[in-house]
Amino acid sequence: MDIHEIQFFEGIDMEVIKEIEDNCTVETYENGVAIFEKGNQADFLYILEEGNIDMLIKDTDLTICNLVEPGEVFGWSSIVEKGIYTASCICKAQTKTLRISRNKIEDIFNRYPKAAVTFYRRLGSIFSKRISTALEKTQ
Fold first, then answer.
1. Residue 128 three-state SS
2. Alpha-helical runs (H) found in 34-138
3. Cβ–Cβ < 8 Å for 62, 1
4. Residues 6 or more apart from 138 whose CB is under 8 A from it?
5. Is 2 within 8 Å of 70 (Cβ atoms)?
6. pTM of this structure
7. DSSP tag of 83
8. Rounded to an integer, what distance in angstroms lies between the CA atom of residue 25 and that of residue 35?
9. Which of 22, 34, 108, 135 is most buried, most CB within 10 Å of its CB?
10. According to the model, what pLDDT value does residue 137 have?
11. Nearest to 115 by CA among 15, 43, 48, 3
12. Cβ(98)–Cβ(105) under 8 Å?
């Protein structure tokens, strides 16, 4: 998957996208595997390449959202101050992701603040939509 083709990264300079791509690793997970658990140290940001993922709060078994579209970004707890995952991420099918470490993404955005602003605005928009969806499920 080419990151520059993902709508989330649209408008970010190719130089920045290239650095992000160069620092990503491809990870594959089997159905039923937890990519991360709520409360774990959040060390990585993920981009879905293919598969099916449920983001859920395990204590309540409430599914916050289901990710199936290539290019969806998750694990954003890795790039916020506290750095602890706030939900569990469970594969509902064989899943393939791109993974980038917290340290690498912070380093890139420290050097490219304009790209960071675009990235964090889009992340805020996704966060808002997912919270709204989760709240609708509880009503």
1. helix
2. 102-111, 113-138
3. no
4. 62
5. no
6. 0.86
7. -
8. 14
9. 108
10. 57
11. 15
12. no
pLDDT, tens only, 27-63: 999 999 999 999 999 999 999 999 999 988 766 666 7
**What pLDDT does residue 125 have?**
76
- Residue 136's pLDDT band, with cuts at 50, 70 and 90, is low
CA distances from 14 to 18, 51, 93 (A): 6, 26, 32
**Measured CA distances, 125 to 7, 119, 131 (Å):** 13, 10, 10
Count the neighbouring beta carbons within 10 Å of the beta carbon of residue 114: 12
Whether pLDDT at 1 is above 90: no
Could you tell me which residues are beta bridge partners of residue 36? 89
Residue with tokens 């190719």: 14
Name all domains of the chain by residue range, CATH numbers in brackets.
Answer: 14-138 (2.60.120.10)
Task: Check residue 124 and give its pLDDT.
Answer: 78
Distance CA 105, CA 122 (A): 15
